[in-house]
Design goal:
By secondary structure, the chain is mainly β. 9% of the residues lie in helices and 52% in strands. The chain contains one helix and 14 strands; from the N terminus they run E-E-E-E-E-E-E-H-E-E-E-E-E-E-E.
Length: 155
């Protein structure tokens, strides 16, 4: 459980050392966690929480619950989420920076929405009809900067 949340000021530094020996930078906050029976996968390296749990996993039946007691830098969070997905048997399709993907379905179609918040065009995996332009995509599409696309594909 989380006993306390500590805010980090812009000049404060803390890190998480993961069980694979990689190091992630902590940003904005860190939680003082008390662990009863979960596996500790990462610990803090600095300050009064040095050596205390930062990332935990609790196996339960065929699944697992993960807890991250800090805001991590983007690269560390991405690596952690990839590990979680891999262990759960999920595949993750990486997206270019500054691109969001959302998926909705009805009885007949899967609608995939892409939003490119970046300043450069972004190539994404896409198939179906682009409902905004009428163009067909077979395997990929390019989303212009500061633009979006919606693809519909029969299911």
């Amino acid at each position: 459980y989380s006993e306390e949340i500590d805010s980090l000021y812009p000049g404060d530094k803390n890190y998480v050392k993961f069980d694979d020996e990689s190091i992630g930078e902590v940003r904005d906050f860190a939680e003082l966690l008390r662990v009863k029976d979960a596996e500790i996968l990462g610990t803090f390296t600095e300050d009064y929480i040095k050596g205390l749990p930062a990332v935990t996993r609790k196996q339960r039946g065929t699944g697992a619950a993960w807890y991250v007691g800090a805001r991590l830098d983007d690269a560390s969070l991405k690596g952690l989420l990839e590990k979680i997905c891999r262990e759960a048997g999920l595949s993750a399709d990486p997206l270019p920076s500054n691109v969001e993907r959302h998926v909705r379905e009805d009885d007949r179609f899967r609608y995939t929405f892409y939003l490119n918040y970046g300043s450069a065009p972004a190539a994404v995996k896409a198939s179906g009809t682009n409902l905004l332009t009428g163009e067909q995509a077979e395997a990929k599409a390019v989303i212009p900067p500061m633009d979006g696309a919606v693809f519909a594909k029969s299911i």
